[in-house]
Amino acid sequence: MTVRPAGAHHGIWFVRTDIALGDRMVPAHWEAVNRSPLCTKLENRAGLSVSTVEHLMAALAGCGIHNALIEIDGPEVPILDGSALPFVRGFVSRGVRKLNAPVMAYEVLKTVTVREGEATATLAPSNTLRIDFEIDFVDAAIGRQKKSLVMNNGSFARELSDSRTFCRQADVDAMQANGLALGGNPGENAVVFDGDSVLSPGGLRHADEPVRHKMLDALGDLALAGGPLLGHYTGCRAGHSLTNTLLRELFAAPGAVRRIACDPTQVARLPGYGLVWDEIPAVA
Known about the structure:
This protein is of the alpha/beta class and 284 residues long. The protein contains 7 helices and 17 strands. The chain has one domain: lpxc deacetylase, domain 2 (lpxc deacetylase, domain 1, 2-Layer Sandwich), CATH 3.30.1700. The chain is 23% helix and 26% strand. The chain has a 5-stranded mixed sheet, covered by helices on one side. A 4-stranded mixed sheet has the order 1-6-2-3, with no helix packed on it. It has a 3-stranded mixed sheet with strand order 15-7-17, with no helix packed on it. Strand 8 and strand 9 (119-124) form a beta hairpin.
């Protein structure tokens, strides 16, 4: 996979380089999401797809990258270590180019909430992007966790980017019984919990790594809005599918959101602004 720069207002697009004929372009946009509870899968009108895009999208958003062409030679973004950190370090080490064009963002004007069982997701007006998240698992090693972050001044890279995806041992057993996840290697691309134990070698990177990863996922899914969001996201037990439902409701609700050209003050409140290399976690 190669991430290449793109011009102003290009947006984020994937191109499947392993496909010779037909429409190879897949947009990184909420309307292209084929909803799934386990990952975010994008699909174009021809049925060509790219899955597990959420960590890469979070890294792009968290580094303030709004335009890019992503060449990928298969149907899935590499999982790497299960976090967004390798992408963040790659982007920042190569540098981000400023374009001679205003940043176009989406400003949330009305509160929108969606629910599915015990899970809820909300977007409310805010002059910056803020993410609040709460999870609650029966496994004692996870339990109930809550965290809130304003997503500017490099907070994504500093606080969330190295937090890995996680799962329960019971889920791993169920997937492997059905012939899935046979290549998974706990500790390399996921954190595995079993009751009050962390099974992955090396343990946790943060005591609350699971809720941090949920926030990472939420940023990646919100980045599919088509531009940066100025709004306050609150998720309680929410997942990829519910966050996509929230974006669909936001853009369907009359007067709930508007597209704006950001002034310098608003640009300074966007994710990626104020990102400093020395604050990026060093070890993936």
